[in-house]
Write a structure and sequence with these properties.
Blueprint lengths: L1 E5 L5 E6 L2 H4 L5 H14 L59 H17 L3 E4 L9 H10 L6 E5 L4 H7 L5 E5 L5 H6 L2 E5 H11 L2 H4 L28 H15 L11
Parallel strand pairs: 1-3, 3-6, 4-5, 4-6
Antiparallel strand pairs: 1-2
Length: 265
């Protein structure tokens, strides 16, 4: 597909051909949703913790006798019913990590990039060219490009000049192309990429990486021949006892049966 390249003044300078597998793919909402949930879950620390009645500090003696005083039954001071007691079913430290297959992660990133390109939220500039880190220059560049809403700026490699120029802007974030992820792309309404960032994205998620299969496609067999199974069940090696029993039974089976005597006694 063709992507228009804008100059620093916001005018069209040229057009580049982008990989359709990265910027022209039909989005896959289910994979994008799963990738977003996995990324948000992996951000969780999972460090919330509470103490049970056996872990709180204090005596474990029974506070009052069981019967005869007309009051409710009560155990130790660590009971969850009492103030400063333990928590019955509180959170414990655990991991919220979710593992997503590599091909699904790549498909999710290609889907969100294609969605941005389809709805016109993706803009490509030839070069950002910050000679000196300055926030005013970044604001002027975004205004010339018509990006007045939240914007994710993507560079080919980490660029400190661009990062320092945009770090004081509340709705602008700068990332190198290799750090692109689903959550950041969906969190910002506009996506601004340099030409180098577009080529880096094609190198990371396009070409052979987008079409490669885990195993080669098997060749079709001729019509007259029956296809052999791809794998056969592994034969178990006979045990020593089974081998000895088979060896003992073999001579008996091989010996000829005695001929019957048809002569009259």
């Amino acid at each position: 597909m063709k992507l228009a390249v804008l100059s620093a003044q916001g005018k069209k300078a040229e057009s580049i051909t982008a990989d359709d597998q990265v910027f022209g793919l039909k989005p896959h909402p289910a994979v994008v949703h799963q990738a977003l949930l996995a990324q948000l879950a992996n951000r969780r620390a999972g460090s919330a913790s509470t103490k049970t009645r056996g872990e709180v500090r204090g005596s474990t003696a029974k506070l009052r006798r069981q019967k005869g005083i007309g009051r409710a039954r009560l155990g130790s001071a660590g009971s969850p019913m009492l103030r400063h007691g333990g928590v019955a079913f509180g959170p414990r430290p655990r991991s919220f990590a979710q593992r997503l297959p590599k091909r699904m992660r790549r498909l999710a990133i290609r889907s969100v990039l294609s969605a941005k390109a389809a709805d016109g939220s993706l803009q490509v500039v030839k070069k950002l060219g910050m000679e000196k880190p300055r926030t005013k220059d970044m604001i002027a560049l975004l205004e010339k490009l018509g990006l007045d809403r939240s914007t994710l700026v993507v560079t080919e490699e980490p660029d400190r000049g661009v990062l320092v120029s945009a770090r004081n802007l509340r709705k602008v974030k700068v990332l190198p192309a290799s750090y692109l992820n689903v959550a950041d792309i969906l969190s910002y309404q506009n996506l601004l990429m340099t030409v180098g960032a577009v080529r880096k994205a094609e190198q990371l998620w396009g070409g052979e990486r987008a079409s490669r299969r885990r195993a080669p496609i098997p060749a079709l067999e001729p019509a007259g021949r029956q296809a052999q199974p791809a794998s056969r069940a592994r034969r178990r090696r006979p045990t020593a006892a089974a081998a000895a029993a088979a060896a003992a039974a073999a001579p008996a089976a091989a010996a000829p049966a005695p001929a019957e005597d048809d002569s009259d006694a």
